[in-house]
Amino acid sequence: MYKIETHLHTTYISHCGWLGAQAIMKAYSAAGYDAICVTDHYNRDTFDYIEMDLSTPGSKTRDFLLGYHRLKREGEKYGIRVYAGAELRFDGSQNDYLLYGFHDELLADPERVMSEGLEAFAPKYRADGALLIQAHPFRNKCTPAPAELLDGVEVLNLNPRHDSHNDLALAYAEEHHLLMTAGSDCHRPGDEGTTGILAETLPEDSFGYADLIRSGKYTLIRPE
């Protein structure tokens, strides 16, 4: 079985992330992980932190994926595969959404994405073939999104500094027949590798990773 992290942040992009590529890879290699999905924050705080001018022309996706690219290079030294993801937050809400298997163009214009909101974004991510999972939907200041706009719910989030009310997230996913994921929500030393998924196959790339989640052919890693 292959061990995969689904929810992780880097210091390069996420303003709340403390860990760089080498520290992350050392920790996940020691914990026996085979792959990591980098889900740096895609929100106003992020773009202020990295001093990105959203009013200038041209795609912003490659710059946003700096953490992914650095981890991917470092991962080659450890034999750990790295997949591109994002944790989106739209204006006017504290909700967060894990996005998997997207093409660069989908996130090219952060100003448009963040200002339009989830309802406008839903048909676009689906047309792109991407997958959207609501992260920790019952955490303080978060609310579960309408199920018809989602593919799944993160039902096990083990960030130690938040109570994500995982029992409520699980109940919501079961009620609406949504996909379920588990993630460490790694930001700092000590957060690494507390959960994730186990699968019999190891996806080759970010799109294969999204296909794996979509298939449901995995199990959640639950702490002892």
UniProtKB/TrEMBL annotation:
Classification via Pfam families: PHP, PHP_C
Domain PHP span(s) in chain numbering: 6-124
InterPro entries membership: PHP_dom, PHP_domain, Pol/histidinol_Pase-like
Protein name: PHP domain-containing protein
Organism: Agathobaculum hominis
